[in-house]
Design goal:
Radius of gyration: 51 Å
Helix content: 10-25%
Shape: flat
Number of strands: 15
Strand content: 5-15%
Number of helices: 9
Order of helices and strands: EEHEEEHHEHHHEEHHHEEEEEEE
Structural class: alpha+beta
Amino acid sequence: PESATVFVEAPQAPRAMTVGPHPPLRPGIGFCLQAKSTGTPPGRWFLNMTMHKLVEMPVSYSGQKVSKEWILTHGIANLQVPFDMGSFRKVKGERAEGAKQTTWCLDVVFHPLIVQLFVDDAFCTESFRAFVINLTLKRIEESLNVKLETSSIKLVKDFRYKDGEGGDPNIPREFRELPDEKDSFDDELRMEPPKEPEEILIEDLTPDVRKAPVLKKGFLNGGKSKLYGPDGSKEGVVPENAGDPLGYIPKRLRNQCKIVDTRSPEYQEHQKQADAAKENNRQQQEFRDTLLTDLDKWTKKSTANRWEADLPDGTEVTKKYNNDYSRFDQVQEELDEPTEDTRDFYFDEKGVPKKLHEPKQTDDSPLPPAMKKGFLENVKKALYPGGPGGSDAKTAAEALKSTDMEQLAQLSESEIMERIAQMSPEEKSLMNDLQSLLEGAASTEKLSTEPQQPQSDDRRVVDYTLEAIEDAHMLQIHVPELDSMKGVDLDVTAESATVVFPHSLKPLQVKLPTAVIPKKVKAKFSKKTHHINVTLPMA
């Protein structure tokens, strides 16, 4: 599979140690697999799956080493498994035993844990064995250009190692370097006959006569005129965007887009207009939000809950969490300060750099002055009759407001009604809201101007009883005016209990004979007896 990675090339394992003599690299015996290769003629292969401690443990794709427990839990499908391969060799004497095809042998070296897990039937699964076998076959195909059939692979039960040292199947062969960087022990494998030099069909038999060179040596040193003029060679084709500062941008993109420098005066002026329009829209939206913010809440408060009367006795509508997120509107957002561009130049639409304060003149002739010098010396009237800053010097806004009021005063009642009828639904609803706000403000002013008279407190004092029960106090309050606990506020401390009622009932404050636990207080309302029963556990 693609997730497997081989860290050491097949013939490079013994070359890792370059200092001193090579130690014997003899792997341990694991098991042997037999397979068939495709091609003409087909061959038979024995794969000796061996083990050695020099081969590293599998690692993750991030390079982190994994432990044995991790492999036993998760497997090796998502790991990089290092292994090595020796040089393949032809098994001698196999044809004499009745074999119909050539037999080859190859040693594959894994970490000892991988071989142990492969032969362990209690741990091993079909996916684990298939992963190790596919990893080996893929490496053989990439290195030796030999493709083995997966369906022909089988485990050899007669021996665990094929073609051992000196013909002994219990002694594996030692890894050692091949002479002259060969890929195999077999001299007959992949030996191509040397190519004979091709015979010359036509041979020039004329005597050795040297031809004069086409160019003489040093022909450019004594020239009186230059090879190229001051403009250089005119050969070739000049590109279309030669000399264009924006030539690095593709032509199609340059034709479809308009590139603007944010430091150009035209862009700055357009940006100021856009910011002004954005600020005006924000102010209008803020004014509308101020008028229409709490209209939904006011309508909900005016309508009572129709299902409140159907609640059973002692049921309190409580919420475990508070979902009111309006407090986050008061949190001020800290905006990042924009970075200022300190350049004193900008690029125009064609990409040519220009100074910011460079005057623009469409014509070479000087422009006439906007105002003549001394134009105020011979005036017949004063610019401001009341003096500068006097009462006659009105601002444009005041003049506009007075003009609008004069026009409204000249309109008749029928014309005003026609204009109101032409308003949009949003404008009409906005006028109704303003009218209600103005009427409310007028009523509050009228109430504030009228003298306030002292009111007599006609509220009734409620009857209550305080009894001591097992490990608690029972406070019973008789309230025939109430039908539920709606509007009743109960505040309990360690030494007293305070109850505030709606309607015409005075608040009740009761001192407790012993200390109580405020957090364990429970209150229930009985609709049959119109009693509020408060249980106060003792501390």
